[in-house]
Amino acid sequence: MRPDPNTRITPPEPDAPAAEIYMRRALALASEAALDGEVPVGAVVVRRGEIVGEGRNRRERGKCALLHAELEAIAAACARLGGWRLWECALYVTLEPCPMCAGAIVNARIPHVVYGAQDPKAGCCGSVTDLFALPFNHRPQVTGGCLEKECAAVLREFFKKLRENA
Fold first, then answer.
1. Exposed site from 12, 51, 116, 153, fewest CB < 10 Å?
2. Of residues 108, 34, 36, the one with CA closest to residue 72
3. DSSP for 123-153?
4. How far apart are CA 105 and CA 21, in angstroms?
């Protein structure tokens, strides 16, 4: 059932223990990406306490700029739930979303985004800019810093190894 377009649907903010469980799954996906030579970013979409979509970066292997973790997780959730409106879902991602992923979040009507590490180069939830503060037809709530140290450490270690092998 679709919500009334005039009513703002906002799920309750995820409690810390549940958020950590989902972020740990996103971290596991990020680690898989790193093992595959991809920038280690993982994402999960959750509805009513169940993971309905998962994704990880695949840009290098797929040779496509669109293969971000968030987009893969959103696509998987849409396929599983049978529609593009993810208004009952939350997205958990290890790195603050970029402009492209923030646009997909808005278009999928995801009401809550939880991210781990900030992205000072491309983050669009406050680091570089806050696209969700603009007057789009949908504005998700954002919670940053969930398992921030762990999420940042995975990225730091990946880029350290990349520099050492260059």
1. 12
2. 108
3. -TBTTS-BGGGS--S---EEEE-TTHHHHHH
4. 21
Which tens digits make up the pLDDT trace of 74-125? 999 999 999 999 999 999 999 999 999 999 999 999 999 999 999 999 999 9
**How do 141-144 and 112-117 pair as beta strands?**
parallel
> Which of the residues 13, 20, 54, 70 is marked catalytic?
70
Instruction: Judge contact between 80 and 61, C-beta under 8 A.
Output: no
CA 150 to mean position of chain CA atoms? 15
With both helix axes pointing from N to C terminus, report the angle between 69-81 and 99-107 in degrees, rounded to the nearest 10: 20
Compute how many other C-beta atoms are within 10 angstroms of the C-beta atom of residue 142.
Answer: 20
- Cα angle 30, 32, 38; round to 5: 70
pLDDT digits (tens, 9 = 90+) for 2-55: 444 433 444 445 667 899 999 999 999 999 999 999 999 999 999 999 999 999
Look up the pTM and report it.
Answer: 0.91
Q: Cβ contacts of residue 63 below 8 Å, gap of 6+?
A: none
